[in-house]
Amino acid sequence: MALNNVIGIDHAVVMVKDLDKAAENYRQLGFTVSPRGTHSAHMGTGNYTIMFDPDYMELLGVLTATEHNAPARTFLDTRGEGIERIAFTAVDSAAGAEEIRARGLTPIGPTDFERPVTLPNGTVSAAKFRTFMWPTAEAPGGVRIFACQHKTRETVWIPELMTHANAARRIKQVLIAAPEPANEAAHLGRLIDREPTTEADGAVTVPSGGERADFVYLTLDQLGKRYPGVPLTGLSERGGAALVLVSGDLAATEKALGSAAVRSGTAICVPPAKANGTLLAFIAG
């Protein structure tokens, strides 16, 4: 049975070493970046968001070492920058945590936290969340998963933040490199009750649900063949990740990306070395 309280991909978390520099880098790539947020003290992290519809990207940095962010710090120390985890949208995090507990897994959370948000009119409000995580060891392809319940969607999906010079509209796919894609896809499929499908090139897709972005597990070699001419320097053979983003105007995308743009077939890409450890591939849509 499918999970009742967890629907498709909500956002992708890109761990970065210098939060403000990463935000400026993404601004230079034509993204509209939110004001900086600081999470609750036990989280010890800060972020910038890049809002799409219905999903988004999060640039996340460690501000103060805490027990909660120990896995994120380990990721930065061992793998460097890049996609460290993927969030699903939770309808009800407490109920979702109990659903995976009933499947024999011990959830982390649910955890409540918030961050202040400066709204376009200058007033300050709060973005409030309740999350739960699958056990840290349950990380298909080396990428952790969790679920996020948005208590205040109006302070996250702010219309002024959702239009980007590079014409990005939403996440189409999360591509995760792994030496044995079928095994990693089967692992995720068990965790979220979704059926993997093998593609013609041997990559394996797992739908995230709710007509949201798909997960695609593939070898680093297969990833390179999908985007010929794009340097993959910095991507790990297990856990190196890419985002396929739908663009409303590829000409605008190419112009906004400037010298970072690499044409590859029908896609316009930004190599991981120029996007804080994440391959970005823009496609028409």
TrEMBL record:
A UniProt-annotated Pfam family: Glyoxalase_3
InterPro entries linked: Glyas_Bleomycin-R_OHBP_Dase, Glyoxalase-like_dom, VOC_core
Limits of the VOC domain: 8-150
Coiled-coil residues: none
Name the record gives this protein: VOC family protein
Species assigned in the record: Bradyrhizobium cajani
